Amino acid sequence: MAVDTLLERITDYANRPDPYPLYAELREAGVARQTDGSYLVGTYYDIVALFHNPRLSSDRRNRAAPYRDLDAEDQQHSFIRLDDPEHRRLRSLATRPFGPPHSPGRIDAMRGEITRITEELIETLRSRTRVDVVDDFAYPLPVTVICRLLGVPREDEPVFREWSAAIIESVDIRPGERQRAGIQARAQMGSYLVDLAEQRRGRPSDDMLSAFVNDPDPSGALTREELSATAVLLLVAGHETTVNLITNGVLTLLRHPDQLERLRREPGLLPGAVEELLRYDPPVHMLQRVPLTHIEVAGQTIPKGVPVVLVLASGNRDPRRFREPDRFDPAREDNQHLGFGSGIHICYGAPLARIEAQIALGALLPHLSTATLVEDPPPYRQSVVLRGPRHLPIELSPSPSAR
What we know:
10 strands, 46% helix
């Protein structure tokens, strides 16, 4: 088939369970112009170069007129969708409550709490023979953690889960009408989070919303709009990608029982295994950028303002960068994957996601050795950008104590 239909085929839901053959086609093409005028880039070194190219913008408002959609209606522009210097300023303010750079900080201090939450969830699974990894474990763990970090009441989770789902569905290459629903959900969630923060103004507590409105340094003050966008980003990104990371990890391990058994025998490999999962089947498959001027990629000129889609999951399987890239190897060395992106916009929540995935998978390993997939492939979410199973039902043998 012609490479100019690659985006149509990648976004076709029928290919959601296994888009990797299409990514191999993309790498062969190098850069592929699509029927809608956009360009796909899927080779590792080209993606890295573009991530570090200051002529490539993260602000979708810089797209040329034919490619603009509803961004003008969206009043929330979080720092991941902005360029420097605004990106640097807002990211720095969002990072401040985590503690000084290179210090143990708030996230490291939460290891014990994350372990406790994980153990509580594992305990609820002990007497069961069938569970949904998403609903019963991979979703509640990071949601509980990010609620604790931000200071969001866990009992409000059903309210913001609906908003979060609408926001995630709008984070797509071709969102269509879902974009309008996402804009509305961001506004509603933002208003809810700002109201929570304002309740703590002058009455500081040990959470990030409180820290944002009680920063003694005037330079740390966020406007209402900035606070809304930042808080929504932290709440949604703080759990949605981790759900996919844990779920994709369980699915990969069950499909590779030899490596699953190896990790049980050698738990010291777990941090490296999480990095390999981020390479092998990452939670974020692609990101969109916009050239601020004409740029050349792999011998092709991409015009100013035309969307460029960086297919990170394709770069992660590039044989020019990774040896045997289609093989899952928990002990892989030199694993500088693109699972968290690269450059100035590298994932803000990467340290938290790593800790959660390591603790979660470590706790699940003893139970997975007797687990079987109920459905393979499982049903996937609609989003091609944030790719992961919507549900992952597995059969478990009950633990000896539960028999």
